[in-house]
Design brief:
single chain; FAD/NAD(P)-binding domain; 7-stranded mixed beta sheet; 9 helices; binds flavin-adenine dinucleotide
């Protein structure tokens, strides 16, 4: 009997697992991906790990601030910028200042790898969770589903219908496009919020990571991406066109890839950070927050971990 099985090795699942491991509980972590990270995934292009999901984190909570300070101290994170541009069909527009954005020189998934130090992650696609909580051949006292609500719903049906209803939550889709160039030919900018084009975000990944790699990353709008989930490569040409308009230059990449996010970000906020049912099933992730963010996902996992430790003590 394992104390805790965590399904999902994104930042929320690993934060939850870490909290349980630190309290001496036995923890098993399963993820369907080849690597940990979930929506902090990266794709390596010509030696540069480009962010496919969240390109940065912001900080407002003191507990997460301590984690971020540790990453900053060890060079896993860097202060990127507090200023983004706005952009549209007429090119780059005004600069907008906001909170400090922290980016990862080795891509954001390196943060999850760091949190997962000492935790073995088994690559398994987990199916529906039975009433006896036997998951992939092993029973546990608590099963944590650390993933987007619609993915949790698939695991909670048919044996946990009420919890499935509680987990259900609308998510927006999106497609990330990573384009590598032979050299930088665009005006200097860090990133831009884009309007009136099929993309909503455009970033210079070489500037965010600090290695100067000539790599741009764009995120489609939810609507445009959602229309092409069956064939993500179909967005490449329109997205390159949008990049050219947003930057006001011609761009011819030497390598370009598209990555689909069927469940990119929750669209309905929640006012609690996790759910832990009497049956022993716990739910966490960025869906359990007011706003989908790296910080919120970490806090959700850490809060659920603390509740699990208290339950099993
Ligand atoms: C394009 C994009 C841009 C973003 N931009 C920002 C940003 O600028 N700033 C910011 O703070 N946040 C941003 N975010 C949000 C941020 O990435 C998320 O809030 C955070 O990474 C969510 O972590 P999580 O652990 O909750 O979920 P996830 O990272 O989704 O982890 C869930 C894990 O569960 C696994 N899983 C699911 N089903 C199964 C199954 N049946 N069996 C086994 N494993 C399973 C998945 O493989 C995955 O690894 C962005 C997200 C996206 C997609």
């Amino acid at each position: 009997m394992t104390d805790v099985t965590v399904v999902g090795a994104g930042i929320s699942g690993i934060a939850c697992a870490q909290r349980c491991v630190a309290a001496g509980l036995s923890v098993r972590v399963l993820d369907r991906g080849r690597r940990a990270g979930g929506r902090l995934a990266a794709r390596t292009v010509d030696g540069h790990a480009a962010d496919l999901g969240a390109p940065y984190a912001t900080v407002s909570d003191d507990r997460f601030r301590a984690v971020v300070d540790d990453w900053l101290g060890r060079g896993l994170l860097r202060e990127w910028t507090d200023t983004f541009r706005v952009a549209g069909p007429d090119g780059l527009g005004e600069a907008k200042t906001g909170p400090m954005r922290y980016a990862a020189p080795g891509a954001m998934r390196s943060l999850v790898d760091d949190l997962a130090t000492g935790i073995e992650i088994e690559q398994r696609v987990v199916g529906p969770i039975p009433a006896d909580l036997v998951v992939e051949g092993a029973a546990s006292r608590v099963v944590v589903l650390a993933m987007p609500g619609p993915q949790a719903v698939r695991l909670l049906q048919p044996d946990h219908p009420e919890l499935a209803a509680a987990a259900d939550q609308p998510f927006a889709a999106g497609i990330a496009v990573v384009a590598r160039f032979a050299e930088r030919t665009w005006p200097e900018f860090d990133a831009a919020f884009v309007s009136d084009l099929p993309i909503r975000w455009l970033a210079d990944d070489g500037r965010s990571h600090g290695d100067g790699a000539p790599v741009l990353v764009a995120h489609t709008t939810a609507d445009f991406g959602g229309q092409h989930l069956e064939d993500p490569d179909a967005v490449i040409e329109p997205v390159l066109g949008a990049m050219r308009q947003a930057l006001g230059v011609g761009l011819e990449p030497v390598d370009v890839r598209a990555h689909r996010w069927t469940f990119a970000q929750p669209t309905a906020p929640r006012d609690r950070t996790f759910l832990l049912e009497a049956s022993g099933i716990g739910l966490c992730g960025d869906g359990w927050s007011e706003k989908s963010k790296v910080e919120a996902a970490w806090l959700s996992g850490d809060d659920l971990g603390a509740a699990v430790v208290e339950r099993l003590a």
